[in-house]
Amino acid sequence: MEGFNVKDKSLLENKEFLQELMERMMLVHTFEERAFWLFGQGLVHGTMHLSIGEEATGVGTSAALTKDDYMLATHRGHGQALGKGVNVNDMMAEILGRATGTNHGKGGSMHICDFDNGILGANGIVGGNGPIACGAGLSIKMQNIPNRVCAAFFGDGASNEGAILESMNLASVWELPVLFILTDNGYGMSTAKAKATKTVDFGKRADAFGFKAFECDGNNVLEVYETVKEAREYVMNEHGPVLVVENTYRTSGHSKSDNNKYRSKEEIKYWEDHSPIIRFREFLVENKIFTNEEVDAMQATVDKKIEDAIEYAKAQPQPVVADLEADVYAE
Ligand SMILES: Cc1ncc(C[n+]2csc(CCOP(=O)(O)OP(=O)(O)O)c2C)c(N)n1
Ligand SMILES: [Mg+2]
């Protein structure tokens, strides 16, 4: 099993923080397993994209951001939103389309929004986060807001979208405080990255636009955290954007249905065995920071939180037709 090369050794003394990282990754994983189960029961409208296998990216990234930093999530954004601190009951209510959900039941899985926690929204348009991140970055800059950045997630598939490439250029020209967070999970739907991209060394993209790239093992939550922290400091000091490449793997299917014909069972099994949660558990236990029993207790706490959230969400009211046009800004 790969080791954890932690730069800031004081992190290892901070048990509260390490527990928070573990419980949050478990929260993402369990939330998704149960949300998918609800989907199977016919209780969820629309579609759903799970990030099982990628838990360290959403959680590790947001652990390095402040509450006020902006974050833009993708269609695979449950872990990104939960990582940034959205209330789990409100998010479950949104998944079930209830009036008290984060988007009053009008958004669902792909549009979780929570301005109080800096979550400007998730986006079903692949690559759509780039231009929005430029807008958010420009607003921070024009208002001279100190110590705030905007982090925009996008995938390896989205990296070839014109909107992303144009946004990287614009953010660089205008020196905007934007972190472009590329979660490279190896595939865009059923297309392996090498079939869609000539050079899969994505960090090199930043060279073309004149800014710095950071890269990390996206299945190592502490490495993700330390890398994004360093990248964020760089943005604050250098006054311009950065690219952060997080190398990970999606063990869940692309969407609600996926017969996995584009990859082997062995490949999926390898990554299931090297999942961020399994690796972090081994790290914590091997280094005698927590016992296996203590980690099991964390999972039990999370299980209860999720079951409570389901019960809460199911008891929430459905939206009413009279509110159809509320919160709709375009005419
Ligand atoms: C502009 C646009 N084109 C195509 C789609 C259909 N689509 C949804 S997810 C997806 C794959 C995106 O791959 P990637 O960016 O790697 O993200 P991942 O799904 O791997 O997290 C595609 C093509 C879309 N939603 N938006
Ligand atoms: Mg991908």
Automatic annotation (TrEMBL):
<dbReference type="Pfam" id="PF00676">
    <property type="entry name" value="E1_dh"/>
</dbReference>
<dbReference type="InterPro" id="IPR050642">
    <property type="entry name" value="PDH_E1_Alpha_Subunit"/>
</dbReference>
<feature type="domain" description="Dehydrogenase E1 component">
    <location>
        <begin position="23"/>
        <end position="319"/>
    </location>
</feature>
<keyword id="KW-0786">Thiamine pyrophosphate</keyword>
<protein>
    <submittedName>
        <fullName>Thiamine pyrophosphate-dependent dehydrogenase E1 component subunit alpha</fullName>
    </submittedName>
</protein>
<dbReference type="InterPro" id="IPR001017">
    <property type="entry name" value="DH_E1"/>
</dbReference>
<keyword id="KW-0560">Oxidoreductase</keyword>
<dbReference type="InterPro" id="IPR029061">
    <property type="entry name" value="THDP-binding"/>
</dbReference>
